[in-house]
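User: quick one, sequence for these tokens?
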């Protein structure tokens, strides 16, 4: 017994010493990078572990909000570098050695084989397949659906016009989800399911909680937790929808030479030989990434215009001065005739980027801000904070001023000062799709309505993980415009 008590700790100490020695270069390089303030010997995890989701945003502000060039910290076994400038964003997003997504974070989306989380050859293959769903011809094919569903959304909102404040999010989300579902997964009318929206509404906050518990990336440990069970139950409507999608599209499981096609026809094409797990995870992530992103951005955009009457007036004037007639569709090309609306959307995504923080992992050493970042380090890109940095955007950085995107100063900013859709080889595949859909929505909406809200800009509270939500809700009063 006493021998065991001596040998066991000795084995652990020796194993640890070998582990450290093998990784001596890693620790040597990591040791040279300045630490985030407020860590305990460089360790940060104790501040985040198990933290309540409502406190994550406050903590992120403390850890990432400072205008420091580069900092680092340990998060349990992970070494994390905080890249805090547009220059570093550019280096990371264009490096072939920073394409990997760290498992500890991205497994939290519950679809590790899907494109948002997968890596290496699987990611390259999936990206190639899914790119076939975003060709200009297909985007034009989606155009009449964008217009049809947006007009339905305007009619639905019209039923609430003049009747006091309400939260517009679920209406916007329904529109985005119908567009995504009908255009990409179903070819019929009965594709919309409000349970899917409620399911995602209820579980994104749990996804955040899951990310704060890194041991949950170990499958068998995760399965033992009540959080895991709650998430499983919460996501059941989404799982049911995926099964329905697969059943209805059974006929697409053939080998086809089709060069382009909507998501489901690509995913089921036998030519690509995707496994059942890959197909399930990809559908899951495409639903989540394809509707929630545009729904949140559009909702906060409407809220910003409700709070900023001058900007709203300029939007309305731009629509009135155009040839837009609500009895006809706006083509994707015609959305370019609304530059002020584009600035409004950009300003919304600057202040409220739906993905406020994203991560990469280095697969080789890279140079960043004069430091060598070791292989296997996690790199955080806190775009929310860089988008609001006064040293980049000026002393009014935290204010909503769409005109800044028309100014020479902003046009001359660093190419990576504004990256709401990320960049490089893992940039958002749906950015054009999203921009067309959002512009078509704003034009149709403000042709008919004007909005006001009792919520004040300074009172806005945000929840930032994993996607950015306004905690106060998207409450506004919609009034029919007198033309
Ligand atoms: C306002 C709307 C949107 C925003 C702001 C946005 C933003 C982003 C960001 C920041 C990423 C990279 C995330 C990371 O690196 O962790 C991403 C990835 C992605 N997005 Fe979007 N997105 C939007 C809409 C859409 C839509 C509508 C679709 C599909 C219909 C879509 C499909 C994708 C895909 C497939 C990826 C993964 C790309 C890869 O890893 O290779 N997105 N998006």
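Assistant:
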């Amino acid at each position: 017994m006493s021998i065991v008590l001596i040998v066991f700790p000795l084995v652990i100490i020796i194993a640890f010493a070998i582990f450290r020695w093998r990784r001596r270069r890693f620790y040597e390089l990591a040791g040279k990078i300045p630490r985030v303030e407020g860590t305990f010997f460089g360790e940060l995890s104790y501040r985040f572990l198990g933290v309540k989701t409502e406190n994550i945003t406050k903590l992120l502000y403390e850890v990432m909000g400072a205008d420091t060039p580069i900092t680092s910290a340990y998060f349990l076994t992970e070494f994390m570098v905080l890249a805090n400038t547009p220059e570093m964003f550019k280096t990371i997003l264009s490096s072939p050695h920073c394409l990997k997504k760290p498992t500890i974070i991205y497994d939290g989306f519950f679809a590790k084989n899907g494109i948002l989380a997968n890596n290496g050859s699987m990611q390259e293959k999936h990206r190639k397949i899914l790119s076939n769903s975003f060709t200009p011809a297909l985007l034009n094919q989606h155009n009449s659906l964008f217009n049809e569903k947006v007009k339905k959304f305007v009619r639905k909102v019209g039923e609430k016009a003049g009747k006091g404040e309400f939260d517009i999010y679920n209406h916007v989300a329904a529109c985005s989800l119908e567009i995504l579902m009908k255009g990409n997964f179903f070819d019929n009318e009965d594709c919309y399911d409000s349970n899917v929206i409620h399911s995602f509404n209820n579980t994104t906050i749990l996804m955040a909680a899951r990310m704060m518990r890194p041991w949950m990336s170990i499958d068998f440990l995760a399965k033992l937790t009540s959080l895991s069970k709650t998430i499983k139950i919460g996501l059941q409507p989404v799982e049911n929808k995926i099964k329905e999608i697969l059943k209805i599209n059974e006929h697409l499981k053939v080998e086809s030479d089709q060069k382009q096609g909507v998501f489901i026809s690509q995913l089921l094409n036998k030519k690509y030989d995707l496994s059942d797990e890959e197909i399930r995870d990809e559908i899951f992530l495409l639903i989540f990434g394809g509707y929630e992103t545009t729904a949140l951005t559009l909702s906060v955009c409407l809220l910003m215009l409700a709070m900023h009457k001058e900007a709203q007036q300029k939007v309305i004037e731009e629509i009135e001065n155009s040839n837009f007639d609500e009895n006809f569709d706006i083509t994707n090309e015609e959305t370019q005739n609304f530059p002020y609306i584009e600035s409004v959307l950009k300003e919304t995504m600057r202040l409220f980027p739906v993905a406020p923080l994203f991560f990469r992992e280095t697969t080789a050493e890279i140079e960043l801000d004069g430091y060598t970042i070791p292989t296997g380090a996690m790199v955080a890109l806190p775009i929310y904070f860089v988008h609001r940095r006064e040293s980049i955007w000026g002393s009014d950085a935290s204010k909503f001023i769409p005109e800044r995107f028309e100014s020479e100063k902003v046009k001359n900013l660093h190419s990576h000062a504004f990256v709401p859709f990320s960049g490089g080889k893992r940039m958002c595949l749906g950015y054009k799709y999203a921009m067309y859909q959002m512009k078509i929505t704003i034009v149709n909406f403000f042709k008919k309505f004007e909005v006001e809200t009792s919520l004040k800009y300074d009172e806005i509270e945000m929840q930032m993980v994993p996607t950015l939500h306004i905690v106060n809700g998207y409450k506004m009063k919609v009034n029919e415009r007198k033309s």
